[in-house]
Structures are given as structure tokens and as C-alpha cells.
Amino acid sequence: MDHFSRRRRRILQAIPSLLAASVCPACTSHDPDQLHSALLALDQLASETLGTSGIPGMAIAVVHNDRVVHLKGYGVREAGHRSAVDTDTIFQLASVSKPMAATVLAGLVGDGVIGWDDLITKHVPGFALADAVATRQVTLRDMFCHRSGLSEHAGDLLEDIGYDRDATLYRLRYLPLDKPLRAGFAYTNFGLTQAAVAAARAAGQSWENLAAQRLFQPAGMTSTSFRYQDFIASGNRARLHVADDGTTYTAKYERNADAQSPAGGASASIADMARWLRIILNDGQLDGVRHVAAAELAQTRQPQIESLSAVRSPVGKSSYYGLGWTVDTDANGRVFNGHSGGFMLGAATNVTVCVEQRLGIVVLTNAWPVGVAEGIAKTFMDYALNGTVSQDWMALYRGAFTAKLQAELRGPGDYVQPLPEAEPARDLQAYAGNYLNDYYGNAAVVQNGDALTLTIGPDKTAYSLRHWSADDFLYEPYGENAVRITKVSFGVPDSGKAERLRVEYLDQNREGDFLRATLPQS
After folding, report:
1. Could you tell me whether strands 90-92 and 285-286 are parallel, antiparallel, or unpaired per DSSP bridges?
2. Dist CA 360 CA 354 (whole Å)
3. Cβ count within 10 A of residue 454
4. What is the pTM of this model?
5. What domains lie within the chain, and their CATH numbers?
6. Less Cβ crowding at N or C end of the chain, within 10 Å?
7. What is the mean pLDDT of each successive set of 10 residues along the chain, which is 522 residues long?
């Protein structure tokens, strides 16, 4: 089994908390000259970083004391084109969608429509997890702070192979829980999505309409949406970019994250993000209008569960997760909330706030995660609050998002070169047939002359299988988590006819086995 995808997810999730915990500025209010100097340095850093990193474009907003003190686009929306990023350019937010979704739910809690400790089953009676006790007891709060017992990134691979939101949430019941309810943290996009969908049902609306009517429209966030189609409809949008060679960015992919929209499917301009920051930093108010109850908004930023233990942390300090926000404190007790977002298909974002100082920054980029968004945000916050930059945050983040990691994420993997001593395959008819898996659904292997085709997913997407060795074949999947050529291994008993197949990239938590159907499939 290839454990790479699981390992790289843990690395990417841990990076923001690891580095946030090591900031140690003096816990005093900063003066205007200090902030002014930090803003000048921020503008220069952003401009220089475009050149040094190769990233095509970014946009940055800074809010302090309910004022937008920096709002600017840099670079271009698409590499090789002259379409400049401006303050109205719409970016995909990836996981920065989570604190925005938490803001919507905090509004509903303040309205009395839901409570954070409502059971999921109260609003979605047909909801189920693999464990009956967890099904009866799991709450909106549990899902929003990733302590449901679901395994890390449960459901993401269902989305990769084409399942929509409803089908993915339904199929979570077939995935054994990784741990008991509330026993530990495991970052789970579809767990949070389930909570948001439950809240929307309580309000009698779809999630997308709820977010628009409860937050975006009243707050004047005219470009912000949880619908991919709204993003695509804009003529002023940032394309996603990857750099397969590590240096030259190209717009190769699209990412429709509607299935997990509350967790990763929002899009917005930096101008709208500045308005949202003002709400976050001003106790739920914007231009004299209250949009979210102060107490409920504050609750989203309170620690709910340890996400990184002091034992695992290189700085010997635990990090925590709130309700859609990370929670970290420096050595002097100052609290930082934030979140990073990233699509391996080509986006990276970050929001970092220090509410007690009423200071926050959002950085949006149109390229896959290489640490730029986090490095810029951390450098600015360090300078603005401390009067100096305590270390080279850009270098530290580049080290965390290493070139080697990026090469593995998009590289050809271990299967680019033929095996020197590959064993021949059996007669291909031994592998052909229909195979069953409760979680992923059915798969079919079809023989076409001297070739095999694997069909998988609700859309019955067909992939050509290339022989590797003995009963192992290769194919190249597509999706946010399909990072490399993967292996399909057939289990063939003495009878000479395969009884099962295992898809390596779908086997993250021992759920990738498909068993041969005993009856013909219609």
C-alpha cells in the first residue's frame, strides 16, 4: 500500500500550526508608524515574491481597527496573459472556506435557528456513520472541529472519482471510524460539510442560498459564492496553476469543489474578503450593522480540540482547532486564529487574525501550495505586531513545502520506469469481471483484445490499465487527491480467476479492496 497521500495531507495540515506556534512578539499594542512600515514592507515583499517564486498572481487585504489599510492585486490572473489581478479578481479560497462557513453558522446560532451542540440527526434524520453510538451522538460542533471519529479526509476520494455531495455524505456510513467520537482530531472536509448541510436544512434552504442570504448579500460581498458555477461565470477570475517542473507555472486544471463546498468550495474577490475580515475583527459588525452575534462569532475561534500535540510539535507547544479556525498562542499569550487553503490543482490561500489587536490579513494566490501565502501573512503579522521580522518566514515556509514534496505530489511516482525483471501477466480474461465495494461502489474490468480497461465511479469513467508485473497493473487517475500514477493489484487464487482487486490510491485506510461479484451485474 502506498501511504504517500495520507502522509502529505498530514504534512500540509500541520505546517500552519507548527509555524504559527513559534511566533513570539511582544504582547503590546503596536503604534501607527510600526504598522505603516509593515505595510510598506508587505507591498515590497509581495511584489518581489512574484518574481522569486514564479507564482502568476496574488491579492492581499489587511484590516486594522475596522479600516482596510491595504487592498491590492499583484501579477496576472493567468500565466502568459496580460490579464492583471485587481481587487475584484475572484479567487477560489480552498479551505479558507471553512472559517467563512463557520461565520454563517455562527449567525444561525445567534438567530436561534440552530445550536452548536445540535445533533446532526436532528436536522438530517437519515444521517449515519459506521458506528451507531457516534451516529446518535455526533453534533454540529463535533463535525466543525474535526472530532467525529471519521478518518482523515474521509470522503475526499469519493469526490475524486465523481460522487456528488449527497452521495458522498451517504457513503460515509460504509467507512469504519478511525477512532471513537471526540477521541481525537482528524481533518475531514466532508464531516464539516455534513454539519453545514444540516444547518442549512434547519434553515429550510440549500447551503449555497443560505450563505448568500445570511451573510454575503447583507454584508455587500457581491462576488462571494459557495457555487462553482458563479466562479466560472466571472470574466475576472484567477485560473489555477501548477508547476510540473518546479518553476514554470501553467493553467492546466479546473477544480469544481461543489461536493465539499462549505469546506473548500467558496470563491471571492480580495475586496469581499476585506469586508469579511472587518466582520471578524469587529465582533460581527460592519458599517454599524450587526451581521453575527458577537458571542457566537467569538465561540468559533475558541479551542475545541488539540490538533497538534506538544510531543509532536518541534517547538514543544500544542496547537488547537476551533470551529472552522485554527487556534494558536505565542509565548506571551497572544492568540492567533487562521486557516490555510490549498488545491493541489493550483490554489493556495491564507487568513491570519489577531482579534485582540484588531489586525488581520488575507493572502490569495492562483498557484498550488508552496508556502507563499503563509510566508507573506506571517512576515507581515510579525513585523506589524513586533516591530521587526524575527526570522525569515518565507524561507521557513518554503522549507516546509519542500521542492521534494511538490515533486512527489505531481511527479510520476515509482512507476515511471519499467521493472527490470517484470513477471508476465496471466491471460487477461482472468482479471475481467465486475467487482464490488460498499464505499466506492462497483468497478468493472473489461478486456478489449490485448488490453484491460478499469471503469469506476458513478460516471463509469474508464481508465486504461498498463501491465506492471505479474498481477499488478497501472493507471493514472485524475482529481485533487490523485497525485500520481497508481497501481491496481489483482488477488488471484489457484483457480486462476481474480477474486479481488485493490486500487492503491483509493486504499488510504484499508478501504480500497473490491471483491469480485458472484452474479452478473446489470
Report:
1. unpaired
2. 6
3. 22
4. 0.92
5. 4-113+203-409 (3.40.710.10), 417-516 (2.40.128.600)
6. C
7. 40 47 42 90 96 95 98 97 97 98 98 98 98 98 98 96 97 96 97 98 98 98 98 98 85 96 98 98 98 98 89 70 94 88 95 97 96 96 92 89 54 70 94 97 96 96 95 92 87 91 91 85 46
